Structure formats: C-alpha cells, structure tokens
Amino acid sequence: MVKKWFSGFIGLVLLSLVLTACSGGSERSGGESDVEIPEGATEVVMWNLFAGGDAEYMQNIVDAFNESQSEYFVNNIMQENAEYYTKLLTSIGAGKGPDVAIAHTHVLPELVSQGLVQDLDTIGEDVGVKWDEFNQNILDATIYEDKHYAVPMDTHAQIMYINNKLVADADLLNDDGTIKMEKTPEGYVEFYQTLKDILPEDKIPFAFASSGSDPYWTWWTFYSQMGGRGILTEDSLENPKYDLDVDKAIKAASFVNSLYHENEIIPLNISDFYSEFQSENAATMNTGVWATGTWESTEGLEFTPMPIPTIFGENAAWGSSHTFVLPYSQKADEVAQKGAVEFMNFAADHGAMWAEAGHIPAKTTVVESEEYQELPYRSEYAEVANYVNFVDRNIYARGLEEIVVRHLDTIWAGEATPEEAFAAMETEVKDLIGE
C-alpha cells in the first residue's frame, strides 16, 4: 500500500500546537477530559463524532467494556462533528492522534492512502477478531489490498418509514404490515398518487427534503437499483477515472425529480420533514435507520420501517458504515493499541447495544442473535446490509459527494435539467481528480 502524506497539510505543525493547547491531561485527548483512570489500567483514548442518541449508545458500550475488565480503560471523547475529520487527520499526522477513532467508510480511503491508520490483521489475530462473523458486504468496504484496515460497527442505510394509520386509511396496507405497491416505477408513483387522492388535503403523502443529502441518497439508491455502481472507477484508490453511467444517472434523477414536480408527490421546501412525520402529518418519508429510535420513543406514533422498494430491478440502497480504526503512530503504545483492538472487538460483538440507535450491526452473528431479534422494528430492514452500495472507495470520496449533492440540488430546484446538471458535474469532478 502506498503511504503518502497530503502535501496540502502545510499548516500541520501550527494546528497540532493548537490541538495540544486545547487538550486536557493527555496530549491525545483532543479536548477537556477530567476522567479518572483506574489505578493499574492502561488508558485507551478514543475519539468519536457522535451526537444525540448515538453518543449515549456508544458511551453505554464503552462503559460496558470498562466494567468487563480492569486491564484497560477507554476514555471516550466526543469531538465536534463538523471539524472531526480535519482534526483527526491532522492530529494523527502530527503524532497526537487518539488510540482508537471512529471513521466512516467513505473517509477510510484517505486514511489508508496517507498511511494514517494501521492494518489490523496481525493485532486482530492476536486479539481474536473473527472476520468471518461479519457481513461480507460491510466488511469488504474496509479491506484494501487484502488487508483489514477497520473493524466495522454497522451499516446505516436510507430506508422508508410509513405511518401505519395513514397508509391503512388509503387501503394500501396489507395484513402482514407490508405495503400494497407494484414493484415498478409506475407502481411506486401509483402508490403515492393513491395516498395523495384519498388522504385529507392537510396530509402529506411523502415528507422529504428538497435539497441536500437525503434526495442524493434516494437518487443513489435508484441509480444503484438500475445497475449503476459508482461515479469513479472502483479499482484505484488514488487515481480513479470518471466512470458515471450517465444514462442511468439521468434516468434516476429524472424519476426523483418527477416526485417533486410532474407528479407533485413531495411538497417543495418542507421546513422540517422529520417533524411532519413525527406529528403524523405525513404518510411516508425516507431517511436513515437512525430515525427508528426517535420514532419508537414518540408517543402514539404507529409506524413501520422497511427497505426502499426495489422498483428498478436490482436490490440496492445507499448506506454508509461507522468503523473503528487504529491510528498510526511512530511512538505507539503497544499495550494501548492492543486495548484499542480489544475494545473494537468487544463493541462489534455487542452490536445489539448499538442497534438500539437503529443501526444495523456489522456482525451477522449479532443480527442473528436472540438479543437483536428481540429488538422491535430492527429486523424489518436488516436485510439491507446485504446489498448496500457503498460510495466510491477512493481518496476523493468526500469532495466528490459535495459536488454531486450540489449539482443534484439544481435539478430539484428546477434550475437545470438532469442532462445539464450531469454535464456540469462531469467537468467539475474531472477537475477534482485531475483527469
């Protein structure tokens, strides 16, 4: 694996000094921390980017690990989400990174390419990580040149949520809880037209955002269902080529756009589509699995989560994955590193605790466990983990996503046709990758 450092990190040393200045007792803490480390235990500093309910569920896993043994103590430190990856990459490069960190799969290529994370094969074997217990589709997104660079915790896919009462009122709910929908583009539109025609005028058939990540995820889902695999070639971490299937991309975007405009199924510019669903004003919505925990704690809300229907041929969905990585350090504390991987393994094995947040555990053995199966709702969409189409695995993934979302937004806003948007996107993407 080529290990190269970003030449753009000119301000590395200056920023590392700032990070040190704002640190607590440990230069690896990256924030104020007054946690007392038990006597005789090795501190394992962990950084995460979680907020809200996710933060609580992760802390529960950390607490369970710390209580399960006395050799290590994981010091779990939440970092500011917006600046997380800038701080993580820079800190590791300055030799002041944590012992273990959370990384999304789409950021992993940058970490691997720059040599900022270690592969886990040797230490994983020592600790007893059982790679064959993971869902292969999720695990594949963490493997580079046949080496494991992360322990995946989950996949969090975009799925569909329905309000049981409103869908039943339109006579579109089967006795087994599934929806009455022909699995074709025409059947999909007909389902929503029926909701629109039958439900009271103050009810929304499909509550959704008009810009940003959410419609991008749905576009990616339908593009993938058509057989589209990515935007750049998948065989190069650092030197990919532009490889968008333009015909499929335009077809998927045109279909999503028709839901806003031609068929007027999704009202434009809803200020808060989550609130519309939570207050029972919307019959359906699409969002990530993380909303499950919110909906089940909402009094009186009767809902069902399910995969976005396969209407274009292939089972596929947008999804990402939270993973644990082992930051590289020339002065690594081998005991702390072993403790870090011990914790990763523990957390993956206790994925049912993390599933309380709505995420699908990365381990097949966890998904099949009685503890997971007893959780309400989660089994309704666990199958999505088998066919999530992860975004392009290369060092441009973050920049690429920003470009794609921005140009898709011009379609939904009526400022450009799909053909115009993808032509402009191609120019900008090729400039990004230097093609």
TrEMBL record:
Keywords: Signal
Signal peptide: 1-21
Organism: Gracilibacillus caseinilyticus
SUPFAM superfamilies: Periplasmic binding protein-like II
Protein name, UniProt field: Extracellular solute-binding protein
